[in-house]
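Hi P.,

Sorry for the delay on this. The queue was packed all week, but I finally got your sequence through. Input first:
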Amino acid sequence: MATILAIIVFAVVFAFIGLQYFAVSRARRLRGQTVEPEIYKKLRVKKNRPALLYFTSPTCSMCRIQEQEMQGWKPKQTQFVTVNVAQHLDIAQYFKIMGTPSFVLVDEHARVQDVLIGKQPVHKLQALAP
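Then the structure:
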């Protein structure tokens, strides 16, 4: 019985790690891709200026913690755009967002520069989007 339980625990842990790896590798493939103009229109992002897209969900407890930590912080040189995936599922699918919170940095030429999955420390966000 203990052996079966150990196998089940190992399988669950392995599946979780595999899913995390899949999500990260899928997100990294976005780097360098140009964002389509209609996505910019939906997001109301100004062209020729970098943007940090913050993907959140109303049911995400980690998003609430992330937002408390980010309270009072807004990038000065980068647009900060909050994307509620419940309202903009099409945009989340476009950026291949598989979990929240997630961040996508888009440069002034509308190219994806970086994708971060999960809760991030504010100092990392500050370095990413001054």
